[in-house]
Amino acid sequence: GPESNDLVLQLRKRGIDRVILAGMSANLCTESHMRELLEQGFDVTVVSDGTAGAKTPELGDGYAAALTNFKFIANAVVTTKAAVAAMRPVSK
Question: What is the pTM (predicted TM-score) of this model?
Fold first, then answer.
């Protein structure tokens, strides 16, 4: 997660306080980054259809578990379409 690199420093240097997260492993990498960034005071939005998780008979659905946590913990959980629309400049 961000604790093992200078991501937080680089974001702060640039005045960035909002982060949109997507990634390969929802219940591992994405959730770890989300928690660390939230603890550091960032506003974190997770893109629900921009991440995935393993599903096994023994352990269950990692994506579903992570999605539940995202909804409880993240500032927002949105689709890719909503995230892209929010980043578009407003027409004058």
Answer: 0.86
